[in-house]
Amino acid sequence: MKRFATIIVLLTMATLSMKAQSEDNVFFLCTPGKMTYKAPDETKTSGASKAAKAIGTILEAGAGQSTQKTHHPEFAEAISKAIAGGINRARRFTVIDGGISQEDLDAHVPALYYDGTITSITTTRRLRNEKDKEGKTHVHTEYMAGVTATFDLKDIYTGQVIKTANVNSGAYTEGWFGSEEKALSHVINQMQTQIAKEFDLVFPLHANILEVKEVKGKKIKTLYIDLGTSDGIDVGLYLLVERVQIIGGKKAQKEIGRLRVQEILGEEISQCKVTHGGDKIKDALDEGATLRITTQNVSGWFGN
């Protein structure tokens, strides 16, 4: 139970020493470690570029535009908090600032920590010339922010790395703002959202069908599952339904349908509409087949 720009988040998984990827919904406590800001390596910058930066030269970026990039190490703490906030928004994670209690450690509750490096925090200033209807030229100053970071999620008991996340905010056309603060704030908010989505994708919730509510013809229209308020789910959440088979001694999973949460009815029960594959789901239930049902971010960002 949970206790309380285009952003690209690439996750690399290792084998878990706990049951994070089992059919059980294991919920994790997670504590922040050290996120170190690593200043850009100026030794790799050409002499001409150093001189341009030193005198604040504005580099030409195209017709009617010019840009200048600035590094912002003073925002490292805000980026660290954004990473913690993103993890905490994932359904199966609760971030504990200040460390996991000794009582929880003695009880060997599923617990993790993370640490890593912030490799870049920048804003790009753009001077954009625009002519009005009378032919007068107006200069607009706009800003776009960028952040790159990497962090490892680790088993607190063994130190084993179970996830490596690389966060990279790329350029996007809607990303220009009237101040550096607004540009950075936008990137930070986007980072939290995308980290949460990717964690939810890699660590999905598993559900079971409690009861079929409505059948029309040979198709199931609505049913009940055993996820609810205690699992942090929302109306509109999609779930993937797969049929599990053993073929040649190997487990095979094939998608047969999808569900959408219509109404949350309690701590461990919700009503779902079958949006796809109602006939195949009915056949599988009639045959007593094993089903795997997991939450999916099918209506939003999928990541890589």
Strand content: over 45%
- Estimated structural class: alpha+beta
The major β-sheet equals: 8 strands, mixed
> Roughly how much helix do the residues carry, as a percent range?
10-25%
State the name of the first-level CATH class of the largest domain.
Answer: Alpha Beta
Number of helices: 5
Oligomeric description of these chains? single chain
Task: Give the C-alpha Rg.
Answer: 24 Å
Number of E strands: 15
What string, H for helix and E for strand, traces the elements in order? EEHEEHEHEEEHEEEEEEHE
Low-confidence stretches: 1-5, 13-22, 45-63, 299-304
Mean pLDDT: 84
Please tell me about this protein's structure.
With 304 residues, the protein is α+β, with helices and mostly antiparallel strands. The protein folds into two domains: 6-202, Double Stranded RNA Binding Domain, CATH 3.30.160; 206-296, Thrombin, subunit H (Beta Barrel), CATH 2.40.10. Helices cover 19% and strands 46% of the residues. The protein contains five helices and 15 strands. It has helices at 47-54, 76-89, 102-106, 180-202, 278-286, and strands spanning 6-13, 28-37, 59-62, 65-71, 93-95, 111-131, 137-155, 161-170, 206-207, 209-216, 219-225, 238-247, 250-266, 269-276, 290-296. The strands form two sheets. Strands 1, 2, 3, 4, 5, 6, 7 and 8 form an eight-stranded mixed sheet that branches. It has a seven-stranded antiparallel sheet with strand order 9-15-12-13-14-11-10, covered by helices on one side. A hairpin with a 5-residue loop joins strand 6 (111-131) and strand 7 (137-155). Mean pLDDT is 84; it is low at 1-5, 13-22, 45-63 and 299-304.
